[in-house]
From TrEMBL:
InterPro entries, per database record: PGBD-like_sf (IPR036365), Zn_M74/Hedgehog-like (IPR009045)
Organism ancestry: Bacteria, Pseudomonadati, Pseudomonadota, Alphaproteobacteria, Rhodobacterales
Highest taxon above the source species: Bacteria
Protein name in the entry: Peptidase M15C domain-containing protein
Length: 278
């Protein structure tokens, strides 16, 4: 929780008559006392064991209930700050400020394509043959693109990686994208947002759920990031990379013509590719 979120909580507590101190965004003793009093009045709407939670967890639980009272899905009221609660807190702030919660329909991806990436149906003509699942033929012409910031491997966050594999026709563009992401965010913010959590690059395989269509990963022209917080079927209401903090991230990719399936189709928010959708 940041101070803006705590101010929202304090204002709500004041509305309920539980808090009369300064709206300062600080979780002090008076704020905690007000949260405890408010939670006591919620009865069966919150878990029975909430008095055993830490003060911070009670504050988050109160925020989650507040979001639900405004018909914003904050996930289970459990007092834990996860991706769904983070989204709900942002949505609540937007609702209180503007009177509405932005939806996926408010997203307008860029149609720029300065590198002339092909439609998915033309990837073989543009990039050449894809790799083979059984590695029975050579992979596409791949280049190791060094990143200006290290990646953490999604399935083992203690393991680091300093590069991404890229098809030779996308390598220069990828290098520009990574450089601009680093320039815009800096390493600390990249780490906070999990932009540096690597979930996949070159991988010769069929598309999930398809027996015939090859994944864009099979040409080395697609990347996945932070798959645990941006699951395949999650929409903008749950995916972490759909949040406002990531708008610049996607704008940087789209300026080079890369396509976010999240921004164009509201699914698979982990994924970006150098191939246009039909």
């Amino acid at each position: 929780m940041n101070r803006d979120t705590i101010r929202i909580i304090q204002r709500r507590l004041a509305e309920l008559g539980h808090y009369s101190d300064e709206i300062d965004g600080i979780r002090g003793d008076k704020t905690h006392a007000a949260v405890h009093l408010a939670m006591t009045g919620l009865g069966a709407d919150v878990p029975a064991d909430w008095p055993e939670w830490s003060e911070k967890r009670q504050t988050i639980g109160f925020l989650q209930h507040y979001c639900w009272s405004k018909e914003i899905d904050a996930g289970r009221i459990d007092g834990w700050w996860g991706p769904q609660t983070e989204f709900a807190a942002w949505a609540l702030a937007q609702l209180l400020e503007t009177g509405a919660v932005p939806t996926f329909r408010d997203i307008t991806p860029s149609e720029a394509n300065p590198n002339g990436w092909p439609d998915e149906g033309g990837v073989t003509a543009f990039y050449g043959p894809h790799g083979a699942t059984d590695w029975s033929r050579p992979p596409p012409k791949l280049v190791k693109v060094t990143s200006p910031y290290p990646f953490k491997i999604a399935w083992n966050l203690a393991q680091k990686r300093s590069f991404l594999w890229a098809h030779e026709r996308t390598a220069d563009s990828l290098a520009r994208v990574l450089k601009e992401i680093f320039r815009h965010y800096g390493e600390a913010e990249i780490d906070r947002l999990s932009i540096n959590v690597f979930s996949g690059d070159y991988n010769p395989r069929k598309k999930r759920g398809s027996a015939h269509q090859w994944s864009m990963h099979s040409w080395g022209i697609a990347y996945d990031f932070d798959d645990q917080n941006n699951k395949l079927r999650w929409g903008a209401d749950r995916a972490r990379f759909a949040r406002p903090d990531y708008e610049a991230f996607w704008n940087i990719w789209e300026a080079e013509g890369w396509v976010s399936l999240g921004r164009t189709e509201n699914r698979d928010w982990m994924h970006v590719q150098a191939a246009r959708r039909h």
